[in-house]
Amino acid sequence: MSTTHAAPDRESLRDLAVRVAAEAGDLAAGGQAGITVLDTKSSPTDVVTRMDRATEDLIRARLLAVRPDDAVLGEEGGGEEGTSGVRWIVDPIDGTVNYLYGSPDWGVAVAAEVDGVVVASAVNVPARGEMFEAVLGGGSRRNGEPLQAPPAVPLELALVATGFGYFAERRIQQAKVLLEVVPHIRDIRRGGSAAVDLTGLATGRCNAYYERGLHAWDWSAPGLVASEAGIRVGGPGGGPPGNDLVIAGRPELYDALDALLAPLGADTDG
């Protein structure tokens, strides 16, 4: 029989996300050495390791032990139905290829969505010793310290992060777009983890970001961290983020990057 829950408290959801992301990050970090590919997903370059699955299993178990009537949407395991109005959106290891190669740029992302709106999140980047957290309307923090993204810079002075898809056809189009973008910005960065890139906007490690082919588990948790630090996170034309394209930056820079990308087909595969 389902338990009836009171309206969820955003801070308590955030605190649960932080606790679970911390434990999951410890598990994943402890298993990084010697990890190998377990399987592939959409293409031979879209890999999953045994630690992806073990970490997601732990996250699901911990969340549902505290809130058994919630739904959970995870990258590796699909989603369970819930009755509470709360859905957890989980990426157990964002940046799996980085993880596989021993790079520090990967993270555990846990977000709580209430009636379709992300209201609390945590992103743990274990190899950097960073825990990001956010509450909708309550700001974001890194290791307990409030975050405020640096002011916008002109597009030509922007350090822009991006990523590439797993299919050759998509990568070819993304490379064509990149050739048109690079002359108009300071430089490009390709880190390999949307969670690290988006939280990096909140800390000033880059100024803007765009990528095609992301999913809700890629942007939900880090997107709230970024937006609560003053970053606009959306899609083409100022719409919501989506699989076609995610754009992020301070509002003025967001608009300039959006305008640059619009005629280039950045939201298409060519």
H and E order: HEEHEEEHEEEEEEHEHEHEEH
Which parts are unreliable, with pLDDT below 50 for 5 consecutive residues or more?
A: none
The averaged pLDDT comes out at: 92
Counting DSSP E segments of at least 2 residues, the number of strands comes to: 15
Enumerate the strands of the largest sheet in spatial order, edge to edge or round the barrel: 4-3-5-6-7-8-9-10
CATH topology description of the largest domain: Fructose-1,6-Bisphosphatase, Chain A, domain 1
Percent of residues in helical segments? 25-40%
Shape: globular
**CATH architecture term of the largest domain:** 2-Layer Sandwich
**CATH C-level name of the largest domain:** Alpha Beta
Q: What's the number of helices?
A: 7
What is the total domain count?
A: 2
EC number: 3.1.3.25
Keywords: Hydrolase, Magnesium, Metal-binding
Family: Belongs to the inositol monophosphatase superfamily.
Catalytic activity: a myo-inositol phosphate + H2O = myo-inositol + phosphate
